Amino acid sequence: MVRQELCRYFIAFTILVVGCNQALAQSNEPPIEFYSELVAPYYWLDKNKKPQGAMVDLAMALIDTIGREASLSHLPWARAVVEAKKRPNIVLLTALRTPSREHELQWLGKVGQTDAYLIGLKERQYPPLKNLEQAKSLRIATIRGYGSAAYLLDNGFVEGENLELLVGIDQLWSMLYRERVDAVLMNMSTSPFEIIEAELDPNLIKPLLHIDELTIDLEMATGNATSQATVQQIQTALKHLKDKGVFSDIMKRWRL
Fold first, then answer.
1. Domain 116-214, what fold?
2. pLDDT digit string (tens) for 97-106?
């Protein structure tokens, strides 16, 4: 009887110690920092400068599920990618999973898909385009730090000649509408939201060339400096939100 009581006390003490150690380890982990860029309908600022969008809702749901100290902010995407590669616990909410990035980041789960096109203006005449090589006679713009930027550079486009790499989404669409560039390489499915946010008319664009290689998954990602414990924690939380239907509800709310 005494031995049984001692065993119970020992087991209870062990559980308490393990639980305390786990809590202490978690409290010593740096806070998770979720980064997005300013791109509707994923993340933008309303008239009161309050973040809105699908990734805002998803990040908040993840923070509630994980139960750890975390924050959400926006950065120019090139800088966000650099930060994620350099520091632990930086989570990119929408990263294009290209072959060149496969081993540069740890992938946490799919959050969308791109439908990549070269996009031009309806009122302009363009030469027929059957492949990307034929587009090298055009001046193309995309966002610095995007997978599309690396893709164009890898395929022989030269920045400052037939390629413009910009920081802001609004600036990119303004450049196209003012005919400072001939076309842009962007996600066709979200382009209307971006154009409206830039206070332009989305009915004035047309697709020029579908880019099959960039019609791939958008995933949540973090740098290789992030611990496996944190990676698994976020992966598990994201899967939980998908299994419970929370993720799909968020996407439907924002028409994604």
1. D-Maltodextrin-Binding Protein; domain 2 (3.40.190)
2. 888 889 999 9
